[in-house]
Specification:
- α2 runs antiparallel to α6 and α6 runs antiparallel to α7.
- This protein is mainly α and about 220 residues long.
- About 85% of the residues lie in helices and about 0% in strands.
- The protein has one domain: Methane Monooxygenase Hydroxylase, Chain G, domain 1, CATH 1.20.58.
- The protein has eight helices and no strands.
- The N terminus is likely disordered.
């Protein structure tokens, strides 16, 4: 892993940043099979997927540390060092929250209420949209670095980041709708189950929020460039 990342650097941190973005998005993509496994009540497989998630988050963290070391040593960067570090921190929190979500699922053998299963997957799919849009923006940001963060290319990336905010807003609306559905089950569900569902909803929301925060720092770096 470290040798691979070292080969990517050259004179720019942007190649490794895209690799970090991809690894973080892998963590988010694993949420779907985790949720499917929970719905299917395959709790042994759930633990196996959690271990895989922990490994992906660790790999993302290694890449971030390598990038951080590189940009700390460099005397010149085409973007503000503090903004770049903040971007990486918010992006890393996406992976951290994805791992936290997998931990939540392993805490107890919870049976997901049938009325909540499809809404949970719909909400999760929207969170994927937010994370996927951030990944696309990160790739385009790398390409933009060679164009001095200006011109039509810069405007296109800024438009993409604006779309990221809209996708997060949609996720936020869906989270509130799902929470209302959860609390409507108070007469038929245990309080522990309701609290468990709400923790799941909030953690997925944290993923979308951190993706939007990371996108904000991409925007700041472009506008300063």
């Amino acid at each position: 892993m470290r040798t691979f990342i070292a080969d990517l650097f050259g004179k720019s941190p942007f190649g490794p940043i895209v690799e970090h973005s991809k690894k973080v998005h892998e963590c988010v993509e694993l949420l779907w099979p985790l949720m499917e496994t929970l719905v299917n009540e395959d709790f042994d497989q759930l633990k196996s997927l959690h271990s895989r998630m922990a490994r992906l988050e660790y790999e993302a963290d290694l890449i971030r540390h390598d990038i951080h070391g590189f940009i700390t040593r460099r005397s010149f960067l085409p973007v503000d060092r503090a903004d770049l570090i903040a971007y990486l921190e918010h992006q890393e929190k996406i992976a951290d929250n994805a791992e936290d979500f997998s931990v939540i699922l392993t805490l107890r053998k919870t049976i997901i209420h049938p009325n909540l299963q499809d809404p949970f997957f719909e909400y999760m799919n929207q969170v994927f949209q937010v994370s996927g849009t951030l990944l696309t923006a990160a790739v385009e940001f790398k390409n933009l670095a060679g164009a001095a963060f200006a011109g039509a290319e810069a405007r296109a990336v800024l438009k993409l980041i604006e779309g990221l905010g809209e996708e997060e807003w949609k996720a936020d609306k869906m989270s509130r709708k799902l929470s209302r559905m959860v609390f409507a089950l108070e007469d038929s569900e245990t309080i522990l189950n309701i609290l468990f569902y709400e923790k799941m909803i909030l953690k997925l929301g944290d993923i979308a929020n951190e993706a939007e925060n990371a996108g904000d720092y991409l925007r700041v770096m472009i506008e300063k460039g």
